């Protein structure tokens, strides 16, 4: 990345130089949970990282080894001056001229690494750095499409928000901005990177689930339905947002959902695909996805069905993955977890006659919901708008709202029958019954409510008196 000048505002100096602030890991639990995926060294670095210099604008020190390297590089280039950096690249990232201090590495994917960073105004972000160096333009362009998706989905609070980004290869950036690839033969220059500054998430759903199940196992508990409803609804809403934008992920898994200030948000559009405008489905050109959450059609997307139509992967494919996630939330494991190898999974998932086993659950609607998502035939799978209205999320209202009212009247009818010889009691119960059947729409003021209530209570007392005398 080209570094022109260092323009740290005063506020930033104070903020970034706060040693105590930086040596603390604001989310030790998450750092620990990520530790398994990463080299331990990266995590320990958060604590062991040297505190930043007090006045960064005046006192940016490089270690002697680096100084030596710079000196050598300068002498190799003959007359050219050493590249001037006013910050330590081991401690900071610079994106569009703004500095972000590294707090530690969160994790890394195929060709990217994600760091927890702090900005000059003391906000915590995740910084994703994708190495594009040496890649052909077509591949690099694919990586940059994530920016396009995130920009398109800006403002949706169930999608991770892109704060800023920088593509260091300006020719590539131009192509991305134009939305087309003209230079297919190009290659990304030496120090080509894509930087994305993103909202920071505390924990992903995969880690949340394993923590939840550990807790439940140790306390011998069963799944808390409200917990399930709360997060399942958020998951559905997030995927609904992208489906409405005609994007399918085909790679949905719990790790795609990140908890940001109590809400689950969708991350990682690495292999998302826009649905072609002229079709309702998209044709995948390669098998993708995480095996445990992969739909039957995703396994078979290069094949044809019985009518010689190419099997396509579209929104229903994401619904299947959601069904696998829900199943895992309910039972603590994915539906095909016992099939360990690729081929055993392939065989069982692509078999239309295979019946998924569902353990007992206390709520029959929950069972129905899982089955609606995990229907083998993709046409039978429910779509998200339907799933959002499923009785598990929206319990049906009792068929007769006035059930208790009816019961009261039935009671009065019974009383009236019993005391047919007592004219007074008969009259009171008839009056009461009429009052209870009084159309509520006609009671518009509080005064009317009070009057009705006092009449009912007076009659109730009178009737009670008569009945006790009769008894
Ligand atoms: N905004 C974020 N806030 C916090 N953690 C994040 C954020 N974005 C990604 N991560 C975490 O960083 C790690 C690496 O993410 P990344 O998206 O680079 O790779 P991946 O999804 O594991 O792999 P790939 O994208 O190559 O399939 C993951 O553990 C992910 O949960």
TrEMBL record:
<keyword id="KW-0808">Transferase</keyword>
<dbReference type="GO" id="GO:0034501">
    <property type="term" value="P:protein localization to kinetochore"/>
</dbReference>
<dbReference type="GO" id="GO:0004674">
    <property type="term" value="F:protein serine/threonine kinase activity"/>
</dbReference>
<feature type="compositionally biased region" description="Basic and acidic residues">
    <location>
        <begin position="1"/>
        <end position="24"/>
    </location>
</feature>
<protein>
    <recommendedName>
        <fullName>Protein kinase domain-containing protein</fullName>
    </recommendedName>
</protein>
<feature type="region of interest" description="Disordered">
    <location>
        <begin position="1"/>
        <end position="60"/>
    </location>
</feature>
<dbReference type="InterPro" id="IPR017441">
    <property type="entry name" value="Protein_kinase_ATP_BS"/>
</dbReference>
<feature type="compositionally biased region" description="Polar residues">
    <location>
        <begin position="30"/>
        <end position="49"/>
    </location>
</feature>
<feature type="binding site">
    <location>
        <position position="128"/>
    </location>
    <ligand>
        <name>ATP</name>
    </ligand>
</feature>
<dbReference type="InterPro" id="IPR000719">
    <property type="entry name" value="Prot_kinase_dom"/>
</dbReference>
<dbReference type="GO" id="GO:0005634">
    <property type="term" value="C:nucleus"/>
</dbReference>
<dbReference type="GO" id="GO:0004712">
    <property type="term" value="F:protein serine/threonine/tyrosine kinase activity"/>
</dbReference>
<dbReference type="InterPro" id="IPR027084">
    <property type="entry name" value="Mps1_cat"/>
</dbReference>
<keyword id="KW-0723">Serine/threonine-protein kinase</keyword>
<dbReference type="GO" id="GO:0033316">
    <property type="term" value="P:meiotic spindle assembly checkpoint signaling"/>
</dbReference>
<dbReference type="InterPro" id="IPR011009">
    <property type="entry name" value="Kinase-like_dom_sf"/>
</dbReference>
<feature type="domain" description="Protein kinase">
    <location>
        <begin position="100"/>
        <end position="393"/>
    </location>
</feature>
<keyword id="KW-0067">ATP-binding</keyword>
<dbReference type="Pfam" id="PF00069">
    <property type="entry name" value="Pkinase"/>
</dbReference>
<dbReference type="GO" id="GO:0007059">
    <property type="term" value="P:chromosome segregation"/>
</dbReference>
<dbReference type="GO" id="GO:0000776">
    <property type="term" value="C:kinetochore"/>
</dbReference>
<keyword id="KW-0547">Nucleotide-binding</keyword>
<dbReference type="GO" id="GO:0005524">
    <property type="term" value="F:ATP binding"/>
</dbReference>
<keyword id="KW-0418">Kinase</keyword>
<dbReference type="GO" id="GO:0007094">
    <property type="term" value="P:mitotic spindle assembly checkpoint signaling"/>
</dbReference>
């Amino acid at each position: 990345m080209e570094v022109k000048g260092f323009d740290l505002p005063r506020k930033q100096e104070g903020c970034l130089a706060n040693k105590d602030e930086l040596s603390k890991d604001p989310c030790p639990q998450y750092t620990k949970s990520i530790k398994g995926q990463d080299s331990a060294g990266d995590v320990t670095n958060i604590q062991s990282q040297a505190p930043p210099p007090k006045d960064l604008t005046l006192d940016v020190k490089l270690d002697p080894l680096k100084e030596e390297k710079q000196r050598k590089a300068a002498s190799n280039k003959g007359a050219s001056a050493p590249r001037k950096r006013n910050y330590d690249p081991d401690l900071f990232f610079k994106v569009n001229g703004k500095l972000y201090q590294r707090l530690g590495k969160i994790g890394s994917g195929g060709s990217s690494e994600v760091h927890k960073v702090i900005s000059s105004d003391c906000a915590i972000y995740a910084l994703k750095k994708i190495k594009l160096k040496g890649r052909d333009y077509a591949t690099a362009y694919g990586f940059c499409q994530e920016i396009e998706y995130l920009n398109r989905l800006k403002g949706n609070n169930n999608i991770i928000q892109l704060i800023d980004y920088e593509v260091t290869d300006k020719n590539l950036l131009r192509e991305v901005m134009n939305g087309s690839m003209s230079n297919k033969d190009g290659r990304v220059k030496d120090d080509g990177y894509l930087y994305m500054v993103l909202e920071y998430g505390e924990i992903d759903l995969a880690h949340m689930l394993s923590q939840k199940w550990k807790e439940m196992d140790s306390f011998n508990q069963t799944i808390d339905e409200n917990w399930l409803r709360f997060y399942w609804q958020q998951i559905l809403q997030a995927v609904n947002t992208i489906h409405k934008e005609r994007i399918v992920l085909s790679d949905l898994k719990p790790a795609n959902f990140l908890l940001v200030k109590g809400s689950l948000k969708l991350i990682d559009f690495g292999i998302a695909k826009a649905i072609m405008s002229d079709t309702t489905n998209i044709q995948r050109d390669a098998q993708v996805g995480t095996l445990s959450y992969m739909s039957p059609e995703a396994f078979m997307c290069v094949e044809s069905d019985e009518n010689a139509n190419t099997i396509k992967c579209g929104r229903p494919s994401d619904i299947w993955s959601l069904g696998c996630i829900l199943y895992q939330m309910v039972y603590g494991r994915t539906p095909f977890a016992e099939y360990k190898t690729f081929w055993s999974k392939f065989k069982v998932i692509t078999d239309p006659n295979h019946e998924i086993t569902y353990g007992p659950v206390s709520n029959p609607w929950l069972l129905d919901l899982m089955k609606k998502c995990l229907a083998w035939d993709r046409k039978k799978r429910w779509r998200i708008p339907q799933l959002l209205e499923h009785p598990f999320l929206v319990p049906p209202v009792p068929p007769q709202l006035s059930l208790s009212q009816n019961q009261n009247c039935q009671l009065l009818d019974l009383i009236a029958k019993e005391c047919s010889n007592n004219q007074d009691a008969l009259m009171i119960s008839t009056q009461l019954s009429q009052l209870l059947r009084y159309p509520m729409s006609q009671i518009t003021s509080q005064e009317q409510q009070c009057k009705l209530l006092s009449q009912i209570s007076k009659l109730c007392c009178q009737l009670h008196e008569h009945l006790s005398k009769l008894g």
